Amino acid sequence: MWQAGRAIAMTPEPPSPSHDPIRRNLALLGTALFLILAPGCVAGLVPWWISHWQFRAPFAGYAPLRVIGVVLIAAGACVVVDSFARFALQGLGTPAPVFPTLHLVIKGFYRYVRNPMYVAVVAVILGQALLFGDIRVFEYALFAWLVAHLFVRTYEEPRLRKSFGAEYDRFRANVPRWIPRLTPWRDNTESRHA
Question: Which domain, by its residues, includes 180?
């Protein structure tokens, strides 16, 4: 009997979900696929479908707006990729509701704004509107933001409150939904738990 107890005690415990390499790999794969499907369509395919990426006269005849458009596209794309990677690597899940994160992601651009993915996607769309001088793409950017806003308010925020409780409430109280903070938020409770 002692030997059986010893054998049970020596068997390795299964890895916790946060250290599970299979979950991490699934999160990376799912996030990559969702990156192509969601922002790829919303910020790439639909603006192309609207404008065919054809240059029109710049808004108000002011050509430097095209440069601002390129900056918005480049910055937005970087934020989208960084934010998606954080969901997979830090949150161990995807932005897709079917495979949500295990951990609340509050690092990187999330220290400045609660929804950097949506802000970045809208920035990419607005950038294309400015670059191509297409008012229809600008109108689509406003529509995309409105849809994101409604989704965040009616689905994401309630789900995050339910999943992460006080941690999400603290994050929500300190980080704005849409307009980024000028300085990064630091969760003082992290150092106490580390």
Answer: 21-187
